[in-house]
Amino acid sequence: MTDRAPAAPTPAVEAAVEGELRLLDPEVRASPELFGALLHPEFTEIGASGTRWDRASIVEVLTAHPAPGSRPTTTSGMRGVQLADDLVHLTFDTDNNGRRAHRSSLWRRTEDGWLLWFHQGTLFDGD
Which of 16, 79, 90, 126 has the smallest CB count inside 10 Å? Predict the structure, then answer.
């Protein structure tokens, strides 16, 4: 067995990572237009709380009450794999003021670019 360097991310993976990081940007999260523009019309989420969200409900909840003064959400361990020409799977961890979650996202290429189609978060303690 030989050690191989990780493959360079494809442009599709890079686009999905860029979109994911934009979704965590406080300015984007404060704007229903900017936030919603990154979500696929059929977007669904199973949140870290266990709540199921659709596109309209997540845009309303996350942009209605931005958390001023809190630290920005940090990410670690972001990895992506291109599953098909129009589908990318990302996994990563977030820390939002001590609330840590493992995250999984599916990004789909559309006529409007790469849009988040599905997201799930699972809270965790420790490593």
Answer: 126
Task: Decide if 108 is inside a domain.
Answer: yes
* The pLDDT value given to residue 64: 84
Tens digits of per-residue pLDDT, 73-85?
A: 899 999 999 999 9
Pairing outcome for strands 39-46 and 113-123: parallel
C-beta atoms surrounding 80 within 10 Å:
21
Q: What is the pLDDT of residues 97-108, one digit of tens each?
A: 888 999 999 999
In a domain, 92, yes or no: yes
- By residue count, the chain amounts to 127
Distance in angstroms (rounded) separating the CA atoms of residues 113 and 38: 9
Number of folded domains that form the chain: 1
6 within domain boundaries: no
Containing structural domain, residue 79: 11-64+74-123
- Give one DSSP letter per residue of 87-103, joined into a string: EEEEEEEEEETTEEEEE
Task: Give the CATH number of the domain where residue 100 resides.
Answer: 3.10.450.50
Q: What global pTM score does this model have?
A: 0.88
